[in-house]
Design a protein that fits this description.
The complex is a heterodimer of chains A (115) and B (351).
Chain A lengths: L2 H8 L2 E2 L14 E3 L3 H7 L5 E4 L5 H8 L4 E4 L7 H10 L3 E3 L4 H10 L7
Chain B lengths: L13 H16 L2 H4 L13 H11 L3 E6 L2 E7 H9 L7 H4 L7 E2 L4 H11 L3 E5 L5 E6 H27 L1 H4 L7 E7 L9 H12 L4 H21 L4 E7 L3 E8 L7 H5 L8 H4 L8 H8 L2 E7 L3 E9 L19 H13 L4
Parallel strand pairs in B: 3-4
Antiparallel strand pairs in B: 1-2, 4-5, 6-7, 7-8, 8-10, 9-10
Helix pairs in contact in B: 1-7, 9-10, 10-13
The chains are: A alpha/beta (115), B alpha+beta (351).
Bound molecules: adenosine-5'-triphosphate (ATP) and magnesium ion (MG).
C-alpha cells in the first residue's frame, strides 16, 4: 500500500511539501506519544501516529527515516515545525480523528507490521 | 485502490523540484557569454535580401543581426524575408527590411536576464553585446537550455565528487591516527533546536560513507544524549563526537545537577522529567536504554552537584554493522558491569 492510498483513504491533510506519495510504501506503523518509545519501537520507513505536534517530532522522524508522521485529533504544528520538516524531507499529515481511529483504519488497510 | 492514481501525473517529485530550484539558481550564476554562440552569422545593411536567403539556407538559421563595421545596426529575420519575397522585392537591400530597434543582452549578464527578455518580447534570438556595445555573439532559448543542462550536469558531478572525497577522507589522509571531531553546544530547555547535533552527525557519517545502520545508531544515541542535556541539566552541556576509521566515540558532558543514583537512572521507565516536559512526549525513561541498545559500550559517570559525563563507543569492524540496533539480544554491557564502572569512575574523581 502506498502513502498516497493511505492519504486518500483516511482523508489526511498533507501539511508539508507534496511529493510523489504513490512511490512511497510504508513498511509498517507505530503509535505513541512518548518519543523515546517511538525511537525504540517504530519500524524504519514506517508511519508514526501521534498527537504530538511540536518541533521534536521532526527530529525523531528524521532520525528514524520514517515515511510520514500522522498527527491526530486535529492538532496542528506551528509553521516553523512544518518548514523544518520540509528541510529534513519529512512528510507531516494531519487527521481530525483520534489516534485509535487512525490506527484502526491503517490496520484495516493492511498496514499490520508493528516493527 | 484506485483513488490515488489520478493525481499521480501532477505530482512533482522532490528530485524534480530540487532540479527546478537548482536550474533557477544556475540561471543567475551562468553568464550569457557562457552559453551564447560566438560564431555569429552577420548580415550587412547593403546586402541584398536574396543573399540573406542564401545565408539562412546555408547555415540553417532563421535570423541574423545586421552589423556595419562591427557596429550593430539591426536585425533581420525570416519574417522580413517572407515580406520581401511576397512583394517580389528580393533585390532590395537589408536596410529596407530589417528592424533597426534591436533588443540586445550584455555578455556579462546572467542568463536569467536573457530569459526575461525572451518571455517579455517573444523574440527568438538576441544579439549579445559587450560593455562597449560591440556584437560578440547571439543567444537563443536553445542555447540557454543546453547551457543550463551542461551546468547542471557539472554541478551534479561536483557533488558526487565531494561525496566521493568525503568517503575517502580516511584513506587519503595518512597519519598514525586520523580522526574527525565534531563538537556541539547544547542549551538547556532549547527544545526547538533539539535534534540539531544528532541530525548533523547522522548526515556527516552518511557523507563519510558510513553504513546507514551505523549512522542511524549514532544518530539515536546522540539524540537521546542531546535531549537529556536539554531536559535534565542546569546549564546545558556539550556533545563531542570523534570519528575514526575503526570506531566512533561520542560523549555528552554537563556541569550539573548530576545524578543521585546512576543505576536507577539506567533503568527503563525511570524518569525525573517534570510534568510539563512529559506533556511534550519526553520522560518515558527510555532514553538511556535506547542509547544502550545502539552503542557497543556505554558508561555513565555522575557526581551530584558536579555534573554528568556519558561516554558511548561504537566499534566499526567489518560485518558487525548489521548486528545491533534492534537488539536486546546483544548487550555490550550488563547492568552489573555498568554499576561497577560507574562507581569506579566516581571514586577515581574523574570529574
Ligand atoms: N545529563 C543528565 N543530568 C542529570 N540527570 C540526568 C541526565 N541524563 C539523565 N538523567 C536522569 O536519568 C533519568 C533517565 O534518563 P532517560 O534518558 O533514560 O529518560 P528520560 O530522559 O527521563 O526520558 P526519555 O529519555 O524517555 O524522554 C532522567 O529522568 C534523569 O533523572
Ligand atoms: Mg532522556
Amino acid at each position: 500500500m502506498t502513502l498516497q492510498e493511505i492519504i486518500d483513504q483516511l482523508g489526511l491533510k498533507v501539511l508539508t511539501d507534496v511529493k510523489d506519495f504513490s512511490q512511497i510504501i510504508p513498511t509498517g506503523g507505530y503509535a505513541s506519544d512518548l518519543l523515546s518509545c517511538v525511537i525504540a519501537g517504530a519500524p524504519r520507513q514506517g508511519v508514526w501516529v501521534t498527537l504530538q505536534a511540536h518541533m521534536n517530532i521532526v527530529a525523531v522522524a528524521a532520525l528514524l527515516d520514517l515515511s510520514a508522521v500522522i498527527i491526530t485529533e486535529g492538532a496542528r504544528p506551528e509553521p516553523r515545525v512544518i518548514s523544518k520538516a520540509n528541510e529534513e524531507g519529512i512528510t507531516l499529515l494531519a487527521s481530525e480523528q483520534p489516534t485509535f481511529q487512525v490506527v484502526g483504519r491503517l490496520w484495516e488497510l493492511g498496514l499490520k507490521n508493528g516493527g | 485502490m484506485k483513488s490515488g492514481k489520478t493525481r499521480r501525473e501532477r505530482v512533482i517529485t522532490d528530485e524534480v523540484a530540487g532540479y527546478i530550484t537548482r536550474v533557477e539558481e544556475l540561471s543567475y550564476e551562468v553568464k550569457v557569454q557562457d552559453v551564447m554562440t560566438r560564431d555569429v552569422k552577420v548580415a550587412t545593411p547593403d546586402m541584398r535580401m536574396v543573399e540573406v536567403l542564401e545565408l539562412f539556407r546555408e547555415f540553417r538559421i532563421s535570423g541574423a543581426p545586421v552589423a556595419s563595421k562591427g557596429e550593430l545596426v539591426g536585425i533581420i529575420s525570416i519574417e522580413d524575408l517572407i515580406r520581401a519575397l511576397r512583394g517580389g522585392d528580393m533585390a532590395a537591400p537589408v536596410s529596407e527590411y530589417m528592424s533597426s530597434s534591436v533588443i540586445t543582452v550584455k555578455a556579462f549578464h546572467p542568463v536569467v536576464e536573457a530569459l526575461k527578455v525572451f518571455t517579455q518580447t517573444r523574440v527568438g534570438r538576441l544579439p549579445v553585446v559587450d560593455e562597449f556595445g560591440k556584437l560578440v555573439g547571439i543567444i537563443t532559448k536553445g542555447d540557454i537550455t543546453r547551457g543550463l543542462l551542461r551546468a547542471l550536469q557539472s554541478t551534479y558531478q561536483e557533488e558526487e565528487l565531494r561525496r566521493y572525497r568525503a568517503s575517502h577522507l580516511f584513506d587519503d589522509i595518512v597519519s598514525d591516527r586520523t580522526s574527525l571531531i565534531l563538537r556541539y553546544t547544547v542549551k538547556a530547555r532549547d527544545f526547538v533546536r533539539g535534534g540539531r547535533a544528532s541530525s548533523s552527525i547522522k548526515r556527516a557519517l552518511l557523507r563519510l560513507g558510513a553504513h546507514p545502520q551505523i549512522a542511524r545508531r549514532c544518530g539515536i544515541a546522540v539524540y537521546e544524549a542531546e535531549m537529556n542535556l536539554i531536559i535534565h541539566t542546569t546549564n546545558g552541556g556539550t556533545i563531542r563526537v570523534e570519528i575514526e576509521p575503526h570506531q566512533i566515540y561520542m560523549e555528552a558532558v554537563d556541569d550539573g545537577p548530576g545524578i543521585e543514583n546512576v543505576d536507577l537512572a539506567m533503568q527503563p521507565g525511570y524518569s525525573t522529567a517534570p510534568e510539563e516536559i512529559r506533556e511534550l512526549g519526553f520522560g518515558a525513561g527510555m532514553g538511556l536504554r535506547n542509547i544502550q541498545r545502539c552503542v557497543d559500550e556505554l558508561s555513565l559517570e555522575s557526581t551530584p552537584g558536579v555534573g554528568t559525563r556519558l561516554k558511548m563507543h561504537i566499534y566499526l569492524s567489518e560485518g558487525r554493522e548489521q548486528l545491533r540496533e534492534r537488539g536486546d539480544e546483544i548487550k555490550s554491557m550488563t547492568r552489573q558491569e555498568m554499576k561497577q564502572r560507574s562507581s569506579r569512575d566516581d571514586s577515581s574523581g574523574d570529574h
